[in-house]
Design a protein that fits this description.
The chain is mainly alpha-helical. The chain has one domain. 76% of the residues lie in helices and 0% in strands.
């Protein structure tokens, strides 16, 4: 069973493959808050699966925030 901390690290790694989510930037704050909410609502395992399923869409949104 995965805990919240490991889920957050894994999800952020998946979403930050291109390095656009820099700690301290606005995109990092938004993504971190959103992922924390998703983990709290869905649980760590389901949140991870959901992010894997919708990764392309989420990465596209992160690119829009980072520009």
């Amino acid at each position: 069973m995965m805990d919240k901390s490991n889920a957050m690290k894994t999800i952020m790694t998946i979403l930050n493959e291109d390095g656009l989510i820099v700690p301290g930037c606005r995109a990092h704050e938004i993504v971190t808050e959103y992922i924390a909410f998703k983990i709290d609502r869905m649980g760590p395992e389901k949140a991870l699966e959901d992010v894997k399923h919708s990764k392309e869409h989420m990465v596209a949104q992160i690119h829009q925030m980072a520009i």
